Amino acid sequence: MPSWPTETKYIGAETKRIDAPQKLTGEARYSSDIQADGWLYGMILRSKWPSAKITSVNLDKAKQIPGIKAVVTVDDGERTVRYYGEEIAAVAGTSKQACLDALKAIEVKATPLPFVVREEEAIKSDSPKVFEGSSNSSDPRVRENGNVDKAFSECAAVIEGFYSTPVQIHNPMETHGSTASWTDEGVISWASTQGISSVRDSLAGALKLDHSKVRAICDFMGGGFGAKFNAGVEGVLAARLSKETKAPVRLMLTRFDQALAVGNRPSSFQKIKMGALADGTLHAFDAENFGTAGFAAGGATGGGGGGADIPMPYLYRVPNARSSQRVVAVNAGSARAFRAPGNPPASFGMESAMDDLAVKLGMDPLEFRLKNDPSEIRQREYKLGAEKFGWKEKYKKPGSSGGIVKTGIGCAGAAWPAGGASRRTQGEAQINPDGSIEFRLGVQDIGTGTKTVIAVVAAEMLGLKPEQITVRVGDTNYPPGPGSGGSTTCASISPTVYDICNKALDQLQTQSGIADARGANWFAACKKLGVTPLTVHGQWQPGLSSDHACGVQFAEVAVDTDTGFVSVKKIVAVHDCGLIIDKLTLESQINGGVIMGMGYALYEERVMDELSGVVLNPNFETYKLPGIADVPEIDVYLINMPERGVIGIGEPATVPTAGAIANAVANAIGVRVSSLPITPAKVLAALGKVPPPVTT
Amino acid sequence: MKDSDKDGVFGAHSRRTFLKSLGTVAATAATAQVNSVAAELEKVNAEKIIGPEAVPVTLKINGQKIKLQLEPRVTLLDALRNYSSFTGPKEGCDRASCGACTVLLDDLPVYSCQKLAIEAQGKEITTVEGLAKSGKLSPVQQAFFEKDALMCGYCTPGFLMSVTALLKKNPHPTTDDVKHACAGNICRCGTHPRILAAALQAAGVAANGTTKTEVINA
């Protein structure tokens, strides 16, 4: 079994992001920056109806607009659109302005149909149906163990709560889209994606082309967070427009489009009843949950769907537990994977219930977790974090903080059961006689530091410096690698690079006759290659990576009880991810997870208008993201566990933040705000200072 | 609010001065017919009407004069990214809420998506491509590099311009000054603590109250 070196120079140290200079100087060309020869703009016309039968789409006037080169419909003939923002037609033209004019000139005739956008309405049997003739709600999926009803009668304390989370929008800074070029040789798609392979395969499928005729390229892209795996309707339209116009077409979505049609995190409405024995042992759990994954309710969509189920009772083993879950269709854009799918809402609901039950039992919430959390790693993380955070000194009974601005603390835990590796990951290296070396892997760097990880591992194995390693990713012409999902990339590529390096050294040493070609001998060994570079193919090897990262976070907040405003003062994040490859980019991932979790806790929510069926906040003015002034002090503690091999961190880092903040707010004000985001209005309503929001 | 709006130094076309002039006219409207106000506006603007066809526009970008043919409705961002090859400034929202398109106009940071290209004529336009001199990162870029104040990097050009403008005006900023200067920039990856640390490092100011990290070995 292979193993990582124990004495390391670069692995575990701080290596600066190798592609940072390109990003910092504007030299990096993102997907939306591609200026292919003779390129045209593409734009999409979207449905203004949340539900309608489209009877005709007349493109004639649009085609007459000066500068317009092609106009196509998504589907010919009659069709039904099922959400506000669904794609109807697309245009390509010589300027943005021409395209805007052309979109206005497309004539769509439609018969509006009844619609429903609120989950609580959609789940009722008499609500309008998203798909005619079929129920909006799936059958409940029930899981049960033990004797739940009997177990509740044995409990010393029982709580019942209703915890809800909103639909969250990914909002990567670069919107979805691509430049597509369709020539006799095939299609090239410069896509803003976290899955070049899946872009190629989905485009080939939609365009009925051989996979070998489609190439996806992604040198730099502006964030994905789970929403950018496939070509999507927009990617297919760009290719079709390119075919029509015989020119490359750049079709990037607008920020407005981004909020409607290309994914989101499903909502959750969690009714949780939970009881514990007198000694604080969890004993009984009964929960119902439903949420929406949009119109397709988790079915297949252009961008890949997902259900709305969440893991229950999440981290804890309750001997008598029952859960029942349903996914509900509404007339809205479909959900997609979103950083740790299912986990942040599960963590928020369960960790809120844990604190509520601890209060009822009269126990310290941290003690209650230590009593019940089955993970040894999290036990250790809670103890370490509590000491660093000063839990004992800071903890007060809920609501006992004095004054108008009340402070409180809370904690929550995370699990990320995925996060292993893609075992089919491959890669190659070309070693040149001058000693330069280039790695080529068919993965993509979505901002997590993938290129840097490749350079660090290669430098360590070969005795070189990271800056001596040339890294090329983001092209389906390179050996295949996984999509950047499930926090699997680091654990997939590190063992692959390890394997390539070992094979390269073996061959180089044989060919050169130098016993150890590493480090000081590298250039001499390469020179002996003569005129022919050495190319080596490698693949993922077992024993160098694993999965199941944990993590716990502690939050300290201040709540202004006059305004309802919550400010987060401090987060202590304790995480493990096995063997640390690059401490610098790892910390950045954890900061990012915490800040995104803070947005989920306090600000973010897709708001839909039930009268018109439209998304009311498809922009950054009214869909609020955390800004630099909102961000608290974040202290990160990394448990180094090299014996576990490499484990990804992107997802576990965002899981527990919302639960920890919600618990800190409840601890500060003595009442629970059980619905995310915790807005000032909800805080004031919980305090009885304003009436609760009207939701009929 | 960006300084450009606050100061209203961009001639007849800045939002502030436009609103001011509208205010004067609107006061007149209280006693006159609405129609006559429209007529008055039309008369005032009559001599200045250009377009809708493309007109010659000269922009001075990073010290280099560039001649373009642009419809007057083309924004500065569109002109930079799509009519020339300055793709450093990014389009994140195209409506003045994300800051990824921030450039300097005569040392003041502006959202280039909210400025028409024709309005930027005669100004020194600096994009992110203009920060590094003869292949050497500027101190702000260098600090971003060292502190890893970027992940996907799409918002980074905007933050770099906001911080650069701040340090030109205020070489020794406080933490709050940096937060204020970057209030108009959005980052989704969550690089904020690192940006704060980098800005302070570039200014040679000691950072406190940002992020710290510790590795705990088994």
Walk me through this protein's architecture.
The complex is a heterodimer of chains A (696) and B (218). By secondary structure, chain A is an alpha+beta fold. Chain A contains 18 helices and 23 strands. In chain A, α16 packs across α17. The longest helix of chain A has 24 residues. The termini of chain A are far apart. Chain B contains eight helices and six strands. Chain B has a five-stranded mixed β-sheet with strand order 2-1-5-3-4. In chain B, α2 crosses α3 and α5 crosses α8. The longest helix of chain B has 15 residues. Chains A and B meet through α1, α16 and β23 of A and α4, α5, α6, α7 and α8 of B.
List the helices and strands and how they pair.
The complex is a heterodimer of chains A (696) and B (218).
Chain A: H1 20-25, E1 40-46, E2 52-58, H2 60-63, E3 68-73, E4 79-81, E5 87-93, H3 96-105, E6 107-112, H4 119-122, E7 141-145, H5 148-153, E8 157-165, E9 177-183, E10 186-191, H6 196-207, E11 214-217, H7 232-245, E12 249-252, H8 255-261, E13 268-276, E14 282-292, E15 320-328, H9 343-361, H10 365-372, H11 376-389, H12 391-394, E16 405-413, E17 426-431, E18 437-440, H13 450-462, E19 469-472, H14 489-512, H15 522-527, E20 534-539, E21 552-560, E22 566-576, H16 583-602, E23 633-640, H17 657-669, H18 680-686
Chain B: H1 3-7, H2 15-29, H3 34-46, E1 55-61, E2 64-70, H4 76-82, E3 102-105, E4 108-111, E5 124-126, H5 139-147, H6 156-169, H7 175-181, H8 192-202, E6 212-217
Parallel strand pairs in B: 1-5
Antiparallel strand pairs in B: 1-2, 3-4, 3-5
Helix pairs in contact in B: 2-3, 5-8
Please name the defining characteristics of this protein.
heterodimer, A: 696 residues, alpha+beta, seven-stranded mixed beta sheet, five-stranded mixed beta sheet, B: 218 residues, 8 helices, 6 strands, elongated
Question: Outline of this structure?
Answer:
The complex is a heterodimer of chains A (696) and B (218). Chain A has 696 residues and is an alpha+beta fold. Helix content of chain A is 27%, strand content 23%.
